[in-house]
Amino acid sequence: MFSKRTNWQLAPNRLTWAVEELLAAGVPLLDLTASNPTRVGLEYDAETILGALGSANPTLAAKGAARMGHPVLDYDPQAKGLLGAREAVAEYYRADHHRSESGVDVDAERIVLTTSTSEGYSFVFRLLCNAGDELLVPKPSYPLFEFLADLQDVKLAPYPLIYDHGWQMDFHSLERTAAERTRGVVVVHPNNPTGSYVKEREREQLNAFCRERGLAVVVDEVFLDYGMNCAQENTGSLQRLGRDDSARKMQLHESFAGNNEVLTFTLSGLSKIAALPQMKVAWVVTSGPEKVVREAMARLEVIADTYLSMNAPVQWAVPILLEQRKSIQRQLLERVRANLSELDRQLAGQKACERLEVEGGWYAVLRVPVTRSDEELAIELVREKHVLVHPGHFYDFAGDGYLVVSLIGEEREFGEGMGRVLETFGP
Ligand SMILES: Cc1ncc(COP(=O)(O)O)c(C=O)c1O
Description:
By secondary structure, this protein is of the alpha/beta class. It is 41% helix and 15% strand.
């Protein structure tokens, strides 16, 4: 009765079973996988956020007065999303100087709003691929790719990221993996969970690789702003540090939204940028050579028009919600840095485990002794130590010996949980 594409293995995995058993028995667990920012004790400006969705939004109030009615009561179907919201997204790329000295100039007409990055992926996969066509995706990386690809009848061909004093893209593998039906290369900048950014040299190689083969680049930048070396206060920090500060320049992580070398789709959204996943606001920025961008936009617009999925109140709220990122990113960067330094403090007291380099994002990867599979290890940790971690295989690590922990959890829970994980391996 059902489509083959939905023939997923739906039974809970053994780790989920173990967690559910303990929770049912009332055992408190320390959760080192917490990645829902709304539940880790951050301080949100509730009044402003709620006001943005209603009559306390100054833009809405002004428009309402002009029209003798409330704009939210008006249905103004715009395929790419309301212009005011798209302009706020364009301003985000222009204003955040930590990416490049001048920011990235993005035309609001090249932005399509979506309700999630997942929806953005779906639009782009639909635009680029016939059923059975292929996309190259990094490995290890974001576990949802598999499902997104299944749903769009797209095949994934993984290309490995290699760790050697830091993560790198393996261009030899990329070359070997590209085939006749390959339509594009997906990069996650910085990647989840490795936290690695695409370096300037890699970006050049990637552009050359895609140009030669007529491939598009699809870039997931949801964690772009969470660079470990970014200044606490993103906006304006570069001016204060001085434009000739060369050390500082090395820390910039430029968005692909201004990549004009090849057809490029840059995906991001409020779920991570402003830590507001419940608002369901994301976007796709299209860049590249003019002619192909025009054609891509015309087609993307029809795809978006077919769904018109984002609701009006949240679109009107986008400028204010995006503004919230400044306070939230400061808190999250502080949290991530504090947890990372606690992790390093604890790692310094033992020899069995180490962490891999973290350039950005919300996660750390631990290299641990391989005495059993990562799944067995995670199950043992939850049963015996009551700590929940992600085994590396969730993210398709090439072998065993990797655990992934979230760095955005509350500091006390993180510190205690890490202590229990490390004591498992002895001094
Ligand atoms: C790499 C990456 N992209 C996208 C998302 C989800 O974004 P959205 O909530 O906008 O679909 C996540 C969530 O964890 C992620 O890790």
